[in-house]
């Protein structure tokens, strides 16, 4: 029964969705200090290539590769962030866009390491490696009534789900902490925040590096999920993809970009004819959103409204406190 | 050899300069980075291909058609992606940047559907004409491109500095509300600016098509990003800076292809802006005061 419900295709779409949610959140973190960074696709590429190369050439275990990839992207985020965060608004956006392009050009040209625009293949696959390990321990997917590839896709999906839940939990906690309050103070008014004694350089670089780390993390997961990456996966269009998660979903609350990523990954799958016109529709969505609802679909009011609704229903059913 | 490369570099640089003039005009007046400019430029090039290669009509008609179409696109861009944002009180200052990114994505993919993704040749007998000076071959197109870019720059400086419309435009750039209180029709001048910048993009599009004999939907993106790099290099909103920045980038790219690694050609522009923003954030020709207003 379980076996029929688990369709590898749905799980694959679900896994992409979860990776996109991580990317959306990485955008949200830098935006929560009022900085628009378009370098997230570049950092994603850094994470993906780092982890892929480490696991291919030094046969490190995948989790180690992913962690090193994410940390390396984060460190690079600090190095890039320190000088560029002196820039504001539009300038920062352009420089980060340029940074992404430089990264892409390096991936294409450093052929001895990255195999150029052909891309890297034969990256250890997360699900298959896991299957190998559990088989060595004497476990067979058939015990659960699953086929091998069902088990693989299911395992990936569940791992990513746990990771996403952890990431959302972590950043929600951070938002309610001293750091989160510093972020929103900087977003509202940098000068006022500085005169209140907030070290704005520190917090801006922190937010930028966190965004970079999270993008690199998502990129590394992406590499081990597909087993194949190429520079085109991390080019300008990816940067736009990530941007629109936050533009459509909203960047006031963490649920905004998460919803944006969820919705925009699902849309082309559900409406097949849309996928051909996907970017045209994205373009229109971006313009319309900026005109009609610049804060995105989900803002604080929506979250409050949903909370009120659910607690009221809870009270009616007698489960509320 | 060296002289020919120098000429190639100046040609490329002049094209960059014309594209950058469009960016700098919009930024100088509105304080907005128009990310859709590169795609409008690309549409200009496609109109050129359609008129000369597909319909076999003369070149001057291609220029005329491209100017009309891109000017109209500029109007639509201002009307639908910029004006509604201005009426929004207290909207984010990043909003125009993001909404023009939307326009650029839309236009790039529209041209994919209209013209197909491949490389379109731009055939015109004019592009084949050349003069031999000693051992050096100079194509007529290269001279025309250089002259047009100089004319556009001079006309733009004159228009902004010496005419009444230019004065009004500078007043709008200084302060939108004050200018409108003093009786300047701000809506008209803002629309005019975007239209003018777009038409210049259209001209640049045809020139690029002729010079390189290739037009693709992706050219808007790379040219747009380079145009942005140039206005940062030359100083945001500075006409002379756009010209000099364009020439510097054109020469640098040509010489790295000849003497260095051609693969890194596209990275120079960005390495240059990252350096310039750290060393001299106001750009080569910018004034300290001008970048105070966002």
Describe the SSE topology.
The complex is a heterodimer of chains A (321) and B (294).
Chain A: H1 2-5, H2 8-31, H3 40-57, H4 62-84, H5 89-109, H6 111-114, E1 120-121, H7 126-136, H8 148-175, H9 178-188, H10 190-195, H11 200-226, E2 228-229, H12 236-249, H13 255-270, H14 272-276, H15 278-292, H16 300-317
Antiparallel strand pairs in A: 1-2
Chain B: H1 2-30, H2 37-54, H3 59-87, H4 95-115, E1 130-133, E2 136-139, H5 140-162, H6 164-174, H7 176-181, H8 186-212, H9 219-234, H10 239-259, H11 265-279
Antiparallel strand pairs in B: 1-2
Helix pairs in contact in B: 1-5, 1-8, 1-9, 1-10, 2-3, 2-4, 2-8, 2-9, 3-4, 3-8, 5-6, 5-8, 6-8, 9-10, 9-11, 10-11
Summarize the entry for a quick read:
Chain A has 321 residues and is mainly alpha-helical. Helix content of chain A is 76%, strand content 1%. Chain A has 16 helices and 2 strands.
Protein model, in words:
The complex is a heterodimer of chains A (321) and B (294). Chain A is mainly alpha-helical and 321 residues long. Chain A has one domain. Chain A is 76% helix and 1% strand. Chain A has a two-stranded antiparallel ribbon. In chain A, helix 3 (40-57) packs across helix 11 (200-226). The longest helix of chain A is centred in the middle third of the chain and has 28 residues, at 148-175. Chain B starts with a helix and ends in a 15-residue tail after the last helix. In chain B, helix 1 (2-30) runs antiparallel to helix 8 (186-212), helix 3 (59-87) packs antiparallel against helix 4 (95-115) and helix 9 (219-234) runs parallel beside helix 11 (265-279). Chain B is mainly α and 294 residues long. Chain B has one domain: ABC transporter involved in vitamin B12 uptake, BtuC, CATH 1.10.3470. Chain B has helices at residues 2-30, 37-54, 59-87, 95-115, 140-162, 164-174, 176-181, 186-212, 219-234, 239-259, 265-279, and strands spanning 130-133, 136-139. Helices cover 73% and strands 3% of the residues of chain B. Classes of the chains: A mainly alpha (321), B mainly alpha (294). At the A-B interface, helix 5, helix 12 and helix 15 of A face helix 3, helix 4, helix 9 and helix 11 of B.
